[in-house]
Amino acid sequence: MNYNFKKALVVGLGSIGRRHIRILLTLYPGIGVAVLRHKECDKNETQDLQIQACYTKIEDVLKFKPQFAIIANPSSKHLKIASFLASAGVHLLIEKPLADESQNLSKFINLCKEKKIVLMTGYNLRFSPSLQKFQKLINEKIIGDIYSIHSEVGQYLPSWRPGTNYQNNVSAQKKLGGGVLRELSHEIDYLNWIFGPIIWVKSEVSRLSSLKIDVEDSAKIIFGVRAPNDNQISGTLSMDFIRHDTTRNCLVVGELGTLKWDGITEEVLIYRAGKKSWEVVYKLKCGSDYTYIQEIKNFIASIDSLSPPSVSGEDGLNVLLAIEAISKSSEKGSIVYL
């Protein structure tokens, strides 16, 4: 880390904001961290988290003179705060999704470019070693040409964040940018990243359960991407808040076999043509902080070199455009092209 970076701002003090503070202080001892949130921090929070300052008004944070900020409050509040900070010259790591809708995002991204602000979207799953290995093997054509892609992610919402009432969490509330499409949008990001941008979708988005939420709890999506040979590859994506067997995986069927990434066991497996069982080709179990640590290191390195981060603002915008196309497809009952 460049030793000129002495002060950081974290926006939001939920579980992810607290994680970022802890990681920053571990990686960079001596860095000063301030917090911007909707209410004052109490003494215990300030001491336990080693916060140097706590603000409730965005105008006051500039007194602290942060060089970069991690925005980790609800996505519906991201853009207003991020635009203010970017105008003041503060580099930005914004938790996913970049905002709750795509409107005005292009203007914001251009503002960051004009101000030479490093803007990173917080899709930390990109820093999973097993997912990176999966991408590498796909690119090396270990299973030859791809025929189809099948991705799924699901976890029972009430058990997602132990010790909290799920009804009060961002995930459960439309006004805060909740719902499976936004809260589980890592899948849309890595599908764009590994297989090329999604070019069309046909979807069904719904609320199937009796959970006390005002957002969708399930999405079934058929999508298309363009293959390197300019042919189209179709795939499926299943997302939900209702399954009790926590699941995250991607399976790719190819001419020479099938490749699977398991995000829970952090394994990559292959079923080769002519074989009768799966073979584990990669496994590396990382701690729960690992991808966040690598994400922050990448962000800081980008600030140091004023180079693009691994996950850009445009990447975040592309995810939101896909989300909006998925919602539109479900409403119309037809294919929507991006």
Walk me through this protein's architecture.
With 338 residues, the protein is of the alpha/beta class. The chain is built from nine helices and 15 strands. It has helices at 15-27, 43-49, 78-87, 105-114, 129-139, 180-183, 186-195, 290-305, 313-332; strands spanning 7-11, 32-36, 53-55, 68-71, 91-95, 119-122, 146-154, 198-206, 218-226, 232-240, 247-254, 257-262, 267-272, 279-283, 336-337. Helix 3 packs parallel to helix 4 and helix 7 (186-195) crosses helix 9 (313-332). The mean pLDDT is 95.
Sketch the topology as an H/E string, one letter per element. Answer: EHEHEEHEHEHEHHEEEEEEEHHE
Largest sheet: 9 strands, mixed
Alpha-carbon distance between the two ends:
39 Å
How big a fraction of the residues is strand?
25-35%
**Which whole number gives the mean pLDDT?**
95
Strand order of the largest sheet: 14-13-12-11-7-10-9-8-15
* Unreliably modeled segments: none
**Strand pairing plus helix content: what structural class?**
alpha/beta
Broad shape: globular
How many helices does DSSP assign?
A: 9
> Count of DSSP E strands?
15
- From the alpha-carbon coordinates, what is the Rg to the nearest angstrom? 20 Å
Determine the fraction of residues in helical runs and give it as a percent range: 25-40%
